[in-house]
Amino acid sequence: GEEVAQTPKHLVRGEGQKAKLYCAPIKGHSYVFWYQQVLKNEFKFLISFQNENVFDETGMPKERFSAKCLPNSPCSLEIQATKLEDSAVYFCASSQPGGRDGEKLFFGSGTQLSVL
Amino acid sequence: DAKTTQPNSMESNEEEPVHLPCNHSTISGTDYIHWYRQLPSQGPEYVIHGLTSNVNNRMASLAIAEDRKSSTLILHCATLRDAAVYYCILRVGGTSYGKLTFGQGTILTVHP
Q: Most buried residue, A5, A7, A104, B1, by CB count within 10 Å?
């Protein structure tokens, strides 16, 4: 597709439940990034992929968070046993280095996760 | 990652130019300066980027100081749709596949 598609738009979970978020990158983009925005202006980088391989996971919490990008499937971000502090908007972005738009990250519209 | 400093907020009137400053005194020689903006309830959107020379595109202009320790994003004619949070970001090493590290950004309010 021509835009990064994130589903669902909203997700509500009780504390301790699992949450799974999905991201379909722009067709032809080989890099995928996940970000967490907790407060209005604060973005935290979580993880990036080059195709199905983890490229940079320096921001990924070691416990409870995992992510995958498998061939011919949307990428996913999963949170096991959610906590109140996981409430945030999770953004996915994709890019394809090289070419006219090689320097740009294209972001989806995010998934609002509310943990109650 | 090298750090940027921006004012928390700025205001402008519609149809007037807006100059959004950014300080990045610890920038290294290969760091590119990127600007993104986030409109309400949307994901960030690329605006412009540059290395040393001033840059223009259909959205904005980027003026980079000669010593590269600061830059200014220029919106030539602000509209209500330009109200957003603007982020000035240094992309470490100019790598087009590396992460972006967002700072606090500048909240731009545009008055009719």
A: A104
Q: Give the gap in angstroms from C-alpha A14 to the nearest C-alpha of chain B.
A: 24
Residues of chain B contacting A55 with CB distance shorter than 8 Å:
97
Model confidence over B1-44: pLDDT tens digits? 668 999 999 999 999 999 999 999 999 888 899 999 999 999 99
CB contact under 8 A, B99 and A95: no
Q: Do B34 and A45 touch (CB under 8 A)?
A: no
Cβ atoms of A69 and A54 closer than 8 Å: no
More confident residue, A24 or B99: A24
CA dist B37 and A115 (Å) reads 27
Which distant-in-sequence residues (6+ apart) come within 8 Å of A47 by Cβ? A33, A34, A54, A56, A57, A59, A60, A67, A77
DSSP string, chain A: --S-EEE-SEEEE-TT--EEEEEEPPTT--EEEEEEE-STT-EEEEEEEETTEEEE-TTS-SSSEEEE--TTS-EEEEESS--GGG-EEEEEEEE--SSTTTT--EE---EEEEE-
Nearest-CB residue to A45 (from B44, B99, B107): B99
Q: For B85, name the nearest residue in chain A, comparing CA atoms only.
A: A41
Task: Tell which phi-psi region holds residue B29, choosing left (phi > 0), alpha (psi between -120 and 50) or beta.
Answer: alpha
